[in-house]
Amino acid sequence: MDNQYKLTKFVRAAGCAAKMGPEDLKQTISALIPDNKNVLVGFENSEDAAVFKINEEEALVQTLDFITPVVDDPYIYGKIAAANSLSDVFAMGGRVLTAMNIVGFDAANFPKVVLDEMLRGGNDKIKECGGVLMGGHTIESPEMYYGLSVTGMIHPSRILKNNAGKIGHVLVLTKPIGLGILTTAIKRDLLEISTINHTVEIMESLNYFSSQLLEKYEVSACTDITGFGLLGHALESTASTHSYSIDSSLVPIIKESIKLCKDNVVPGGSRKNFKYLQDKIEYKNTIDDTIKTILCDAQTSGGLLIAMKEEDAKEYIKKIQDYSFGYATIIGQVIKKEEKELIIY
Question: What residues are labeled active site?
Answer without folding.
Answer: 16
